[in-house]
Design a protein that fits this description.
The chain is α/β, with parallel strands linked by helices. The chain has helices at about 1-20, 45-55, 65-75, 90-95, 140-145, 160-170, and strands spanning about 55-60, 85, 115, 120, 125-130, 145-150, 155, 180, 185-190, 195, 205-210. About 30% of the residues lie in helices and about 20% in strands. The strands form 3 sheets. The chain has a 5-stranded parallel β-sheet, sandwiched between helices. A 4-stranded mixed β-sheet has the order 7-4-5-8.
Amino acid sequence: MADVTSREKILKKIRKALTNKSTQEIGDVDLESDIYVSSDEPLEIQFAQNLAALNGKFIFCENEAEFLENFTFFAKDNNWTNIYCLEPALKTILKKGKIKFSDKEEHFPETDAGITLCECLIARTGSIMITSKQASGRRLPVYSNYHFVVAYTSQLVNNIKDGLKLVRDKYGSQVPSMISTISGPSRTADIEKTLVQGAHGPKELFVFLIDDVPLTE
């Protein structure tokens, strides 16, 4: 009976609130101003710091040749024999470096490491924005144990809203059916509140940032 009484009291208050609406006017809401504290650090520094805080690995490369050198080192050091890539631009780069990879559907289940491009990098959150319009599709970024992302400094943006604007400008009316952000390796703490990486996706995430912005005086 006590529960019923308490419930009735709560419902009575709700009905009263709905009946007696507030006459207080709500001022104009500013939806344009940035709610986050701005940083004086360059976007690449912000991104690297925030990605590292999420247990992601960041490698800055001055050019594509340096990227190939670094990626070859990782592949040999980890003895990866099943590297999977579907991005045409990346396949061209990997072929230049004589790095073996596969783009065959029958080899997909055997993938050790997947390598993809991205739409942009979100500096404030250290996140990677991807969409279903990319050649890598929905599967590759979440399938392999090791996910390598290749991005360029011209793809760095400040906030998620800037990334969404970039996607809208790029695809126009053909908006991708999936727009998502990757924030560090896959992880969960559902089991006994113990943090586990790689529970339902890549256990390690690497971002290679290639500098393609010319220096200005």
